[in-house]
Predict the structure of 3-isopropylmalate dehydrogenase.
Amino acid sequence: TSSAVRVHRLAVIRGDGIGPEVIDASLEVLAAAESVFGFRAELTEISAGARHYLATGELWTPALQAQLREHDAILFGAMGDPVVAPGILERGFILEMRRSFQQAVNLRPVKLYPGVTTPIDGLTPDRCDLVIVRENTEGAYVGRGSTVHAGTPHAVAVQESVNTRMGVERVVEFAFRLAERRGGTLTLCHKKNILVEAGTLWQSTVDDVSARFPTVPVDYVHVDALCFYLPTTPERFNVVVTDNLFGDIITDLGAAIQGGLGVAASANLNLDGSGPSMFEAIHGSAPDIAGRGWANPIGAVLSTAMCLAHLGETDAARAIEAAAVHVLAQLPATAGPGMGFSTAQLGREIAGLLTSGAP
Amino acid sequence: TSSAVRVHRLAVIRGDGIGPEVIDASLEVLAAAESVFGFRAELTEISAGARHYLATGELWTPALQAQLREHDAILFGAMGDPVVAPGILERGFILEMRRSFQQAVNLRPVKLYPGVTTPIDGLTPDRCDLVIVRENTEGAYVGRGSTVHAGTPHAVAVQESVNTRMGVERVVEFAFRLAERRGGTLTLCHKKNILVEAGTLWQSTVDDVSARFPTVPVDYVHVDALCFYLPTTPERFNVVVTDNLFGDIITDLGAAIQGGLGVAASANLNLDGSGPSMFEAIHGSAPDIAGRGWANPIGAVLSTAMCLAHLGETDAARAIEAAAVHVLAQLPATAGPGMGFSTAQLGREIAGLLTSGAP
Ligand SMILES: CC(C)[C@H](C(=O)O)[C@@H](O)C(=O)O
Ligand SMILES: CC(C)[C@H](C(=O)O)[C@@H](O)C(=O)O
């Protein structure tokens, strides 16, 4: 009977630049996963991003929010265009989405897959497998501050970073559960020797929550030191929990180490059921290579796998990751834009592996 | 006549851990430079740091400030000890020194020297030669903020980052002069798409000062993107100017790329003559290897060269850098703690090269 089919309502935001290309490849993989694993994805295409904004003047609207809320998750391509000033889409759409749907956790695995070229000399996959858990709704991203005497020699700009116990505790608890499942250390990354108010809140929250996870070892590393250690000894880390702004910074470094933005995936997770979670590759819209069919869709495909894992389709998620990893390992070491593969071809290959039941 | 001898009054703060060891080596190099280049360094040893604090309870005192002010520059080893809580020495001494002497600029070259092992695969010295100019007195380091409902589920921590046009302009102007001298691009590193108040002040100051340096190309890179580019394409950067906290983070990444904390040097520059500048290696007190004579003194020696350049002894500064680079290139690729060299030996070799007029 049809009631036996698991249905997931997914909103798809292709966005700009290479966003539509990598989403196309991901949807091909998703379709293969549906047929193999017996669930159904009901897709709603949503127009949003730089081109949509230029055409309509619309960013985040109440109607869009209501429409997205009807979905179980959001697959997100990328947003941005050189003609839209920095900050417009970021603050006007992305931060609004994170806030409206209380996507409290930004989850970013930093995993070096076999065969992927990393800039780090001699780094091997066994030494690079960590997850960065970034707080996603507070900190410097609250966008509070003021400037007095703006435009004069006496200008003073005050920028505030606001953290609440609620916001910190939910992400810290999530990170502890993840560290427990992974059997690894939880590392708090902050700058508590300088940022006393925020640092005290973060450290005391970690200390308190730690009591509920007696088997999880806890560590602390200053954010500057972490940027020294991450490229040299990533094996030092398993689960890293950190502030919104520090997380933004160190996850890009993580993406560099794991072989580039093309393979890095991420999830923006709602934890309380009040709205859908959102899944996206870490790369941006990359207008310089858009439209050529050269973009690496692996980050988007792995984000789709994270989405399915989140929706309970763990077998499908695992199979997609395995297939993507298999395809990645086959790519020539010199593969890059225009060199040896196309976006669509990679999507097809991964989909084909799923359908054929290998690897 | 003795009036022909240039005299520089240097305060020497050895501090803790490996601080005294690397300073010893630096002073041997300094003595050789004095005899070769015909200047005199009058040294005043100052006791300060973790051990001094534990013994006396003293951190930054008015008497110490008055004493240091009588000097032309400060050579600084390192401070810190596991038994002193994080933040005590940082805020109680280092930030006080930066503030009291208005050390407005924190200057950190990121230069890969020949023969030095970098974690970055295939990176060559010609591709890695940039300078990070970090604002050193403002931003999140002002230490302002408050917490309401501390210790309760309703705790809210507010941490402020404060930048003034004066503070930003002086460091931006310094960076433009440096970029002009180096014939390179000035890159502003910030997160202006999110931190609107601070970002607007930084960008508008760069725009304004840029008019006075029409030959210097200007670029802008978000701090997260910079952490992606720095390990992969450091050749993209020549002079980077940035906020205090971003500077703290990206300079540690820079140190990783240039082959470790052992070779990274820095200057905390006063620009208006109101107090001495301070010179230190980027590494900390490294209590785990202290007392063995294993520490790499090159960072401290190169900081001493920066000190001499600042005092007008440009020939001596250049000769020390050349000698240090020569010795670095001779070190076995596997050199590390306890492997093939001692701190004192390296100091002696560099001093010997200076005295013998080679390289
Ligand atoms: C696009 C922007 C708002 C965003 C951020 O700063 O969080 C991006 O850099 C990211 O890391 O997701
Ligand atoms: C010791 C500490 C105050 C300092 C800083 O945060 O500035 C250090 O990390 C540095 O980079 O000089």
About this structure: Residues 119-257 of chain B form a domain with the Isopropylmalate Dehydrogenase fold (CATH 3.40.718.10). Chain B touches chain A through 67 residues (CB under 8 Å). The longest helix of chain B spans residues 19-37. The radius of gyration of chain B is 20 Å.
